[in-house]
Design goal:
Blueprint lengths: L6 E6 L7 E5 H4 L14 H13 L27 E2 L2 H6 L7 E2 L8 H8 L7 H22 L3 H4 L12 H13 L10
Parallel strand pairs: 3-4
Antiparallel strand pairs: 1-2
Helix pairs in contact: 5-7
Length: about 190
């Protein structure tokens, strides 16, 4: 390491357990960082080790999207824990001061959206999920067409972060729910 560089320890090398692995903190924080690897390779341990050291630095900033709460036990002046808002948070009027973060619904994945609207234990859940999927894609398509986003329109998926109006989706779902289908359950 060069003089004055902030050394962050990653632990020992697997081939030589007496040799410590370090990363230059000054260089690490000049870029974006992602820690990836296969199951059991030590991603969580490495992340926790880096976070503990980062929290001790005077001028380092880190944002960790901890969707599964693996790092919830980490405490100290360098840590601020926020969680995504749920229905009870909305009802209680909780916000950032309560550690609750609101994200736009259109950033939610397809699975998260379906879980809000479809009871997976219901016998018609697969059909309902398919209708939900089609309705969300149509709403996103409408936004992209209206904005002239031709390049995105050609390549987006249901999980692409494309804004859409929830009112449009709910309106279409209500319309489809009330629709009379000829021959279905004594319909016309």
């Amino acid at each position: 390491m060069t003089g004055g560089a902030q050394r962050l320890s990653l632990g020992a090398y697997s081939l030589d357990t007496n040799a410590q692995a370090f990363v230059n903190g000054n260089r690490l924080f000049q870029r974006h960082v992602i820690i990836v690897g296969s199951t059991g390779s030590g991603k969580s341990w490495t992340t926790a080790r880096l976070l503990e050291q980062i929290a001790e630095l005077d001028s380092a900033n880190a944002i960790v999207f901890d969707m599964h709460g693996e790092y919830a036990s980490m405490a100290g002046d360098g840590f601020v824990h926020l969680r995504l808002a749920g229905p009870s948070d909305i009802e209680a009027g909780k916000g950032l001061n309560d550690g609750v973060l609101y994200l736009p619904y259109w950033l939610m994945s397809y699975e998260a959206l379906v879980s809000m609207f479809v009871d997976r234990s219901h016998q018609n859940a697969p059909n309902q999920a398919m209708v939900m999927s089609r309705t969300v894609v149509d709403a996103k398509t409408g936004f992209l067409k209206a904005g002239g986003h031709v390049e995105v329109l050609a390549n987006f998926t249901i999980d692409s972060p494309v804004p859409f109006r929830m009112e449009t989706v709910l309106g279409e779902l209500n319309r489809l729910n009330a629709e009379m289908v000829p021959g279905a359950k004594g319909g016309h």
